[in-house]
User: Which sequence fits this backbone?
């Protein structure tokens, strides 16, 4: 069942309250309130250019030019925090560093840091010897696993992922989606995932935030939050129900008009 909602069941540890984000004359985000509880996955859907990456950058502390606040455990953030790990669409590995050095970066890959990097590589399904490889020798799926390990390195409570699986083939994508579900459960962390894929959102998310494109006749940006109240793990053959997809597609289409 999918329902319009903005509430969260467990005690939230991430509170996002964006009153307004502008680029010059144009308001991109506005009146967006979202809380995440540990273990909760929220998907961000919306047409290209509606502000999904902008929202993620704000939550990551990479953009402070907005009105509102982002708080972790009740503490308002003023910049990047180790409590938030970020995974981008492309792995963005540094080519002059080996895999385990990339996971630790900017820390040096030695001692405890190296032990943690190796354990994370194992967790994302890579072998210990992969740590010594160069990024250019990895497949796209492997590189994205390294990027996920890097996102987990600071032991964040929140993982922010911007279209993390859009550059890999369909099988790899499903495996990485399941890896994300395993990691979120194992670490009891929250995840905010940007995706263009309704099926992906319905497979992964407890809630789906649909951002509507601002501008044109609509000067105020808007968002709708849908609660997907089917327990995880979800069988791919069962989800999504066609009614869910219809609602999301209709809303996406209407917002893109
Ligand atoms: N640094 C910037 N300066 C001015 N405008 C910007 C800047 N960054 C983004 N924008 C604009 O803000 C809007 C939102 O951009 P954003 O990258 O957040 O969209 P998005 O939803 O992530 O899109 P996509 O799905 O294509 O990745 C777009 O219209 C974009 O052109
Ligand atoms: Mg984007």
Assistant:
């Amino acid at each position: 069942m999918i329902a319009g909602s903005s509430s969260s069941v467990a005690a939230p540890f991430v509170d996002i309250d964006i009153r307004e984000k502008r680029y010059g004359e144009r308001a991109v985000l506005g009146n967006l309130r979202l809380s995440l509880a540990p273990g909760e996955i929220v998907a961000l859907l919306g047409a290209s250019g509606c502000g999904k990456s902008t929202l993620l950058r704000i939550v990551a502390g990479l953009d402070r030019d907005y009105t509102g606040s982002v708080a972790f455990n009740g503490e308002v953030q003023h910049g990047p925090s180790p409590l938030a790990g970020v995974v981008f669409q492309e792995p963005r590995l540094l080519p002059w560093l080996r895999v385990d050095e990339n996971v630790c970066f900017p820390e040096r890959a030695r001692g405890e840091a190296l032990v943690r990097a190796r354990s994370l590589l194992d967790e994302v399904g890579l072998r210990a010897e992969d740590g010594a490889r160069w990024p250019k020798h990895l497949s796209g799926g492997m590189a994205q696993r390294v990027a996920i390990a890097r996102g987990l390195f600071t032991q964040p409570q929140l993982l922010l992922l911007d279209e993390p699986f859009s550059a890999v083939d369909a099988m790899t994508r499903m495996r990485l989606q399941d890896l994300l579900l395993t990691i979120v459960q194992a670490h009891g962390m929250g995840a905010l995932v940007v995706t263009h894929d309704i099926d992906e959102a319905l497979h992964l998310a407890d809630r789906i935030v649909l951002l509507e494109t601002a501008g044109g006749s609509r000067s105020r940006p808007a968002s709708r939050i849908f609660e997907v109240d089917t327990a995880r793990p979800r069988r791919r053959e069962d989800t999504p129900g066609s009614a869910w997809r219809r609602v999301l597609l209709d809303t996406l289409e209407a917002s893109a008009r």
Residues 3-8 have pLDDT under 50 and may be disordered. Residues 23, 28, 46, 48-54 surround adenosine-5'-triphosphate (ligand 1) (CB under 6 Å).
